[in-house]
Each structure stands twice: as C-alpha cells, then as structure tokens.
C-alpha cells in the first residue's frame, strides 16, 4: 500500500462530503455522478463523487482514499464504465480494498437516484450492493463489447487476487460460451453432418464422446443444405418438432454479419453454426490476412458480446494437416478459440482439436458413423487403439517360458520401433515380462514367473537407443 500525505488542493478537486468522513465511517461509496452521491449521503451513507470525474478521472484523486475501504458503484453507461475502470486502477494503489459493483442490474436497470427516491429503501439498496460480487471482470467485458478495448495493465498481485469466473463450457473442455470455433476437413468429409449431430446433442444436454454438454438452443445457418435432406437427417437424429433449433437453409446472403447480431439477440441461441463461412461473410480474397483477421474478429466480438458460441465450417486444403491445413489465410486459425479437424483413416473418421485453452482431443480419436441414426460414436483413441493392438501381439508371442529376443519381437509385431520399445518397458515395469541381457549385450524377454528377480541393469530404459526403441 502506498503511503502519502494529502496534497493541498482546491475544494473543486476534493471529493464532495470529504469533510464528513471519519476514521471509523466504514466503506466509502464512490459513485460516478454527484446526484447519486448527494442522495446516498442524505440518507446517512458515506458516499462521494468528483465533479466531472466520469469524464476526467485524475490520479491525484486517489490519495483521499488512502487506507479506506472503497466500493465503486457504476451504472451501465459508457461514461460510468470508463470511470470505474480508471478509478479502480488508481484506488487499488492506496486503498485497503476496492470493489466494483455494476448497480444497473441490481435495481432492474432503473436510474439509481429515481430508484431511491421512489420505492427503494436505503437498507434494500445496501443489501443488494453487499450481496453483489466484484464486477471488475464483467466491467472489462462490457467495455470490450462496446468497442472500448484499450491498453490496460495489471500487476501480478491484481491478477492473482482477481475473482475471474470459471469458463462456461457448452461442450466440456472444447467449446466455451462466447467463443468461436471451426470445423475443418476436406470436401465430403462429413463436416455438416457432424455439426448437425453436435447440435442435436447439445439441445438435449446429452454428453458427446465422454464429455458433458450444457443444454442450450441452436441456430444453424446452412447455406448449402437441401430442405428434404435436412428433414431426413433430423428424423434420424431423433430431433423433436418442439426442439429449440432454428435453421436458415439454401438461400445465399450478401453479408450475413450485418444481420447476425440482431438475430442472436432475438433468438438467444447457445450455439450458432455457420456452413460454409465464406458464403456467409463477404471476402474478396481468402488469402488476404488483414481482411480475414478483420472479418473473423467481428465474429469474435459478436460471440463475446452475446455469450453464444459461434462455430464455422470451412474446407481443409489437399495437403494440409492440423492448423496449417486450413484453406486460406493463416489469419483464419489465429482468431479461433478451438479448431476441430476431421480426417479419415481407412473406413473411420478421425477427430482432433487444437485449442487456446481447455482439453484438446490430442491424440485424435476414431469415430464410427451410424447411417441409421446419423450419429457418431467413439471407436477408441488413435494412439490407445494402436498401442493395445501392439501389446496384444507382443504377448501373443509368448506361448511358453522360452525367452524371445527384441529382434524377433520387432520382426513379428507391426508398429513403430519406438512404440514397441515403450510398450515393452511398460510390460517390464508392471511385472508382466522380465528383461534379460544376453552375453553379447542384446536384450531378450520372457514371461514373468512367481519370485523371479526383476532386471536391474541400466536405468530401466537403456534399450531405447539408436532411434529404434530397443538396442540390438
């Protein structure tokens, strides 16, 4: 806490009612307009304001609140939000504590002075204020929604002590509320089918691939969809007529961004799916980094403001993999919270994800598609299913107590040498196999028998050398 003496200043820059404060007066209620300060003070509450502070808060004002507990009350007006944002930063340097309370919602968006004069008692007002949580994080979000993004720096102490609410996941660890994601894959990979499956599960709150979903409504903008095919798919998915889903299909739009925000305000969907994205937003060149970044950023702002998750569908180029495989500018992936990649291996679909935060699907998982229900089911982790196959094949070689050399194991088991070596290590560490070192330094393995001494040579992984997984 910074200690400093109060400077000599004219009455015009002192907080009003400052002379009435005492050392034990309790928290000081700092508001963004004189009218509210006068009304609260007339009712016996130590409230104050600075004339013109909402437009021009000055750092020297803070010294009057040294070692005081301060409650910042702000109405939901842009000037009030700016005032609270700057005052909080300055007051945090000198005050014992500072809380920000956005009072508009507490009093049903009524004018605070009118509320108190007309039907609100002081006790009820104080109770509402005291029951509210610190709104500093929400204040920052409100400023961002209104295009008030500015450089605001916070100390480590401020960050560590702040009460940031946990992420609100619509699909646990994958799709955050107010976020933007993309499903990408090569043409005819099943992106649209997967998106419809995803939406059909989210509207019921049914878990997807072992991860919970938050029940919400869905808005699907399907610009390449045929109505008859959509009907068939919805029937297979078991979507009821009263399901909270709305669709825009077939007809093209010149620039959907101009209408999207108002549509979201009207329908309040939890998730919005747009397929394909570049038939929805107007872009002259998909390789134009500044243009793509600007347009995707517009989607991000709409998502943050509304709280809806916006999912867009887009093609993957012929040779691309992971984030680099997204067709068009690299600005496309850079603005996303989550990138879901659909691929194909043999007769199964693979799904992986790359994310800013959360729990990505990495390694990829296998998906099986059921034509009868238009649904996807997990067929097992890609790495796990391969490892299980290798493990089973290794153990299948041991039909008797005779040892088997690593060379023989590698020749009879299909898989990467590094994977075979890692699985052999695991089998040894769990006591399933015993590792033995031959006279020429080569390793062999045999099934463990009761009371057999474990191998104690090397560091337990000394046969993972020369890039092969096991020394020869």
Brief overview:
With 472 residues, the chain is of the alpha/beta class. 31% of the residues lie in helices and 19% in strands. A hairpin with a 2-residue loop joins strand 12 (338-345) and strand 13 (348-355).
Give keywords:
Rossmann fold; 31% helix; 4-stranded parallel β-sheet; 19% strand; disordered N terminus; 9-stranded mixed β-sheet; Arc Repressor Mutant, subunit A; alpha/beta; 472 residues; Dna Topoisomerase Vi A Subunit, Chain: A, domain 2
Structure description:
By secondary structure, this protein is an alpha/beta fold. It folds into 3 domains: 11-161, 3-Layer(aba) Sandwich (Dna Topoisomerase Vi A Subunit, Chain: A, domain 2); 169-381, Rossmann fold, CATH 3.40.50.300; 397-472, Arc Repressor Mutant, subunit A (Orthogonal Bundle), CATH 1.10.10. 31% of the residues lie in helices and 19% in strands. It has 14 helices and 18 strands. It has helices at residues 34-42, 78-91, 112-118, 122-131, 136-145, 156-161, 191-202, 227-237, 257-267, 289-306, 331-334, 382-396, 406-412, 417-429; strands at residues 28-31, 47-48, 69-74, 97-102, 169-171, 175-176, 180-185, 218-222, 245-249, 271-275, 309-315, 338-345, 348-355, 365-370, 375-381, 404-405, 433-437, 443-447. A 9-stranded mixed beta sheet has the order 9-8-10-11-7-12-13-14-15. Strands 2-1-3-4 form a 4-stranded parallel beta sheet, sandwiched between helices. A hairpin with a 5-residue loop joins β17 and β18 (443-447). α1 (34-42) packs parallel to α3 and α2 packs across α5 (136-145). The chain is extended and about 95 Å long. The chain starts with 27 loop residues before the first strand and ends in a 25-residue tail after the last strand. 31% of the residues are buried. Mean pLDDT is 77; it is low at 1-12, 320-329 and 450-472.
